[in-house]
Amino acid sequence: FQEIKRKNPNIEQLIVLEQKVHAEKERRIQLVKSEISSLSNFIRMIDYMLLESMAKSCSESWTIAASNISQDKSGIFLIEVSFSDEGKISFNVPLETLIENVRTCLNESFITLNNLPRLNQMSKIVDHIIPKEKIRDWPTFESIRSTDTSYSRIEDTILDLLTASYKSAEESSEMYIEYFTIFRLGKDWTPEESVKFRGGDSTEYNL
Prior knowledge:
Blueprint: H1 2-5, H2 11-69, E1 81-83, E2 89-91, H3 95-114, H4 123-126, H5 141-145, H6 150-173, H7 180-188
Antiparallel strand pairs: 1-2
Helix pairs in contact: 2-6, 3-6
């Protein structure tokens, strides 16, 4: 300020100088607050962009999974064919268990993404976020994902194809029913049943 350069300022000049100093101090305080607020908004924007990218990648992965499972001869699952005690075809994994396992696997992808580290969980970044009580209001992966209805459609597609393939496998396996007698023989048969021991006495010869 020009008033500072004066050698012998009067009272009025000192009052004006004090007012200018106070105004400049307030201006700089507001400038710092504005920059801190801008930094907080920037951090939140980056965090939201990461969530959007995660949601997009997850949706694309689910779409690819549905596309892979819908292809001919895709080899969706591998099961062992066996027989029940009544001689009917029996798979080692029931359809209900298979469906539940697929649903669990799909839901675990949401849990994994929702539990990934976030910018608002890093202490060195949280120190620059103002106001801190607003952090709890930041969106999560689950809040973004829950508005996307495509996941339920993709899951229905995957499970419908899985069910159709399972039932088709059951129908194709009916041709093995005629081998039930061989299957039962393999379970009950022992080598001793086919070994015949020679009777009589054995004689040892020393030549």
